[in-house]
TrEMBL record:
Enzyme class: transferase
Protein name according to UniProt: site-specific DNA-methyltransferase (adenine-specific)
Reactions performed catalytically: a 2'-deoxyadenosine in DNA + S-adenosyl-L-methionine = an N(6)-methyl-2'-deoxyadenosine in DNA + S-adenosyl-L-homocysteine + H(+)
GO process annotations (BP): DNA restriction-modification system; methylation
Organism phylogeny: Bacteria, Bacillati, Bacillota, Clostridia, Eubacteriales
Naturally occurring in which organism (per UniProt): Candidatus Fimimorpha faecalis
Amino acid sequence: MINIRKLEAELWESADLLRAGSKLTSNQYCMPVLGLIFLRYAYSRFKMVEAEILKNRPSRGGRVMPVEASDFTAKSALYLPKEAQYDYLVNLPSDISSAGLVNKDGDIMNSLGEVVNNAMALVEDQSEQLVGVLPKDYTMFNDDLLGELLRIFNNSALDEVGGDIIGRIYEYFLNKFAKNIASDDGVFFTPKSLVKMIVNIIEPKSGILLDPACGSGGMFIQSGDFVNQSGMNANSAMTFYGQEKVEYNAQLCLMNMAVHGLTGVIKSGDEANTFYHDAHNLDGCCDYVMANPPFNVDKVKAESCENAKRLPFGMPGVNKNKEVGNGNYLWISYFYSYLNENGRAGFVMASSATDSQGKDKDIREKLVKTGHVDAMISVGNNFFYTKSLPCSLWFFDKGKSEAIKDKVLFIDARNYYTVVDRTLNEWSEWQLKNLNAIVWLYRGETEKYIALLNEYRRYLMHLAAELKTDEICRMITPTTVFADILSAFKDFETEQKQQAKFDMEHVVRQDKKRQQAIWDERLADISSAITVAKEAVWLYEKFGDGVYADVLGLCKVADISEIEAKGWSLTPGAYVGVAPVEDDGVDFEERMAEIHRELLSLQAESNDLMDIISQNIKELGL
């Protein structure tokens, strides 16, 4: 199995080394590099879809009918003419000027940069939404550098893992460039786990989806995946609209959508400044609104906002310069105003907005009294790639059932996450499902919760089978308690660690490295199974077979009178309380003694290694 994280890091390191050698800035380098990854992904999807089309292709006179552009359009994939196919570009001769190549306009091409520019122009001809969007400044690279970049992204590992992984590589690079060139007025790349959380709770099915601060289009991509996974075609079921003030980010959005086979209408520039313009005339028309707007924007012209309307609860505070000093409640009002009578909204917002005072509090009171605030989720630090600030996820639902019409679900998830590295946290797939399950139970959708418990059991059975542990496979039944499954995996881990230690003590020296790698992979797989089992236990211990209950420190359903008593605060921590500190069952003195023994053992091993190195140096006569 390919280590995707390792592959991402290696590709980035190679490409960034070339950037350093080229003396180009990240700004100059970003779009052309993403353009090449876009082309590689488009080619991967092209080959995959081409194979599907050819499976049942009719033939005439023994010849299979050739594929056409319309065949690809029907499957939400780009058709690529030969000269725009990645394989063609990689295998061009080194001396372009002697190859006699001509571009789409019939002009001779003398450099690889011109050939790649022509490929981008040919792709634009296949997609109306990409016209004028793809980078066509590859002549700023010399042929050697550009050829090396093309080869980097033609890594054979990408062919083994398929198009979806290339899409992930694309998003990984987008994230890395976001770190390097993020603007100071907000992060344009929203972390995937926050986007997935919003999409999972909104549950888009069909209709109009608007992201009025769309950045690189993450909300559209995840919504498209959600709809496609439900068995529908996202392009047929959904109409995607976006506004993005920064034209550069809008280009990324259109490329990102195209690479995922989605179409949409994205407006950019001054007319797409959502503070002042409803660029698509969608006020009151949207089935879904999703966004990660820039937080705490100041100096917003109050008069222009009032003229733009979409302020059902009135204006936020205005200073003596006739400016809104903080734009958070402009965004919140706009998101609500865009919704139709049954619409749902989900968005990221600065944590401070949940209990800010003054005019903000007045707007929040009116908002709560509509009964349309659905759920509030507190998110901890380090979820963003470029900032460490905490945030909140807000959810509106104008079509709430009568049972929860005047109630709000509060979830404090600040201490529930997976650490990716020192500066980044995220929700794992199972953590996303668990948080989503709390919302299902609040909405009375018990069948979805039961389905998740069954999914846990099936997946843990699958992991046990992969690990070839028949004992655990036999014990997992539809009624097995998750805590017992977790205990079984932990016992299995202890047994396997002892076996690994024995094997490594008796393996011959030349096989040691290979055997260690095998055991490392196996123990990592067991650890992953334990992690999944822990998440199943986390969920089941709180909600059993599917009955919602307030959980101290995690979740609470509050009615409007309770919210009024809290001064109209929408901060989850004000409602859920503080969870009791759990005893982790570890004896402190015993653990310290264990650590001390480990340290002494490592020191002894280090001394032995130093002696061996010294002896080897002497033998070499150095």
